[in-house]
């Protein structure tokens, strides 16, 4: 049975699901009817950080132009440029057994491609969610619906998966950023 979380809640992921080694992180969203008329292209990304919250090198930033980190632990299944249809719009996979010991946290984010040029922001996005499912049987374990808390932001840190006492936990973050993907990269210590 899937557990629904609210912003700020944290939950054990691997401790409460013994044997879980591979998970699918599905992200979805809809675009409001009153949008600017330009097409929306939302992009999911993953930042693999150390204990200080910094990504050690560009290869540990997984997104549409870098579909997998060097260890093979985190992979992006591909860019969806329209977001149309039901269910997940983009997915990332994580193999907990392959995550390097130097990585303490995997931050999952969504950004709007060319948001400034297209005058778009997360105030025009609704029904955004993230869900975590067991890759082996597809069973949904966790779901976090982001709600309608955003206005001018062009990037959102959706959730974080992090190590705690040898187990992995899930944190429903839901924090908006201005400045899009570049601002997120700088936040995680990458040069843009």
Shape: globular
Q: What structural class should be given to the helix and strand makeup? A: mainly beta
Uncertain residue segments = none
Distance between the termini: 41 Å
Strand order of the largest sheet: 1-10-9-3-7-6
- SS field, number of helical segments: 2
Number of strands: 12
Question: Can you summarize the main beta sheet?
Answer: 6 strands, mixed
Q: In what range is the share of β-strand residues?
A: 35-45%
> What is the H/E order?
EEEEEEEEHEEEEH
Q: What Rg is obtained from the alpha carbons, in whole angstroms?
A: 16 Å
Organism: Pontibacillus chungwhensis
Protein name: TerD family protein
Pfam family, one: TerD
Domain TerD: 1-188
Walk me through this protein's architecture.
Helix content is 6%, strand content 42%. The protein is mainly beta and 192 residues long. It has a six-stranded mixed sheet, with no helix packed on it. Strands 2-12-11-8-4-5 form a six-stranded antiparallel sheet. It is globular and about 45 Å long. It comes from Pontibacillus chungwhensis. This is TerD family protein.
Chain-wise SSE layout:
Elements lengths: L2 E3 L4 E3 L9 E10 L10 E8 L11 E2 L11 E3 L13 E6 L9 E8 L2 H4 L6 E10 L5 E6 L9 E10 L2 E11 L2 H8 L5
Parallel strand pairs: 1-10
Antiparallel strand pairs: 2-12, 3-7, 3-9, 4-5, 4-8, 6-7, 8-11, 9-10, 11-12
Protein name: TerD family protein
InterPro entries: Stress/Tellurium_Resist (IPR051324), TerD (IPR003325)
């Amino acid at each position: 049975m899937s557990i629904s979380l609210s912003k700020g809640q944290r939950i054990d992921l691997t401790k409460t699901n013994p044997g879980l080694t591979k998970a699918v992180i599905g992200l979805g969203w809809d675009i409001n009817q009153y949008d600017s008329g330009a097409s929306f292209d939302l992009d999911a990304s993953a930042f693999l950080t150390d204990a200080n919250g910094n990504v050690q090198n560009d290869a540990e930033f997984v997104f549409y132009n870098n579909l997998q980190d060097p260890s093979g632990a985190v992979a992006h299944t591909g860019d969806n440029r329209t977001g149309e249809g039901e269910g997940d719009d983009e997915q990332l996979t994580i193999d907990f057994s392959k995550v390097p010991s130097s990585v303490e946290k995997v931050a999952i984010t969504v950004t709007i491609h060319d948001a400034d040029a297209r005058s778009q922001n997360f105030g025009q996005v609704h029904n955004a969610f993230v869900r975590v499912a067991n890759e082996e049987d597809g069973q949904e374990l966790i779901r976090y619906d982001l709600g309608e808390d955003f206005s001018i932001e062009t990037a959102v840190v959706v959730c974080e998966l992090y190590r705690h006492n040898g187990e992995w936990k899930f944190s429903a973050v839901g924090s908006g950023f201005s400045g899009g993907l570049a601002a997120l990269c700088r936040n995680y210590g990458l040069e843009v």
